[in-house]
Amino acid sequence: VQLVESGGGLVQPGGSLRLSCAASGFTFSMYAMNWYRQAPGKERELVAGISRAGDSSDLAESVKGRFTISRDNTKKMVYLQMNSLNVDDTAVYYCHAKIGTHPFWGQGTQVTVSA
After folding, report:
1. In a structure prediction context, what are the per-residue pLDDT tens digits for the chain, which is 115 residues long?
2. Less CB within 10 Å around the terminal CB: N or C of the chain?
3. Angstrom distance (rounded) from CA 15 to CA 17
4. If DSSP codes are grouped into helix, strand and coil, which group holds residue 90?
5. DSSP E strands, 7-108
6. Which residue pairs from 95-98 have beta carbons closer than 8 angstroms and sit at least 24 positions apart in sequence?
7. Which residue, among 1, 4, 38, 40, has the nearest Cα to 19 in the 3D structure?
């Protein structure tokens, strides 16, 4: 199993970024996918999750109305569109899949929101 995130970077408050996660090594369409983030000095937190078919998703209260999670099962990709970013969104963002009882994580991509 391999999860590879991309798309992070430095953005000004109010800006947007789109994170991507490329999955391989498992039957992607059979598993829900998630995005987590971890800010300095804080615990890792669940940001967004999407169902296997992509027809259902859930977002943390702190990002509702600003972030959107989506997936493309033909490309084995999951995305996180982040709009209206603020400094509190600064964190390392991780792609996550739980296969059976085993969690799998990507290496993370840094998102920094700063003026």
Report:
1. 999 999 999 999 999 999 999 999 999 999 999 999 999 999 999 999 999 999 999 999 999 999 999 999 999 999 999 999 999 999 999 999 999 999 999 999 999 999 9
2. C
3. 7
4. coil
5. 9-11, 17-24, 33-38, 45-50, 57-59, 67-72, 77-82, 91-99, 102-105
6. 95/3, 95/4, 95/5, 95/21, 95/23, 95/33, 95/34, 95/35, 96/3, 96/33, 96/34, 96/35, 96/36, 97/1, 97/3, 97/23, 97/26, 97/31, 97/32, 97/33, 97/34, 98/31, 98/32, 98/34
7. 4
Q: Take residue 97 and report the two structure tokens written for it.
A: 């899949």
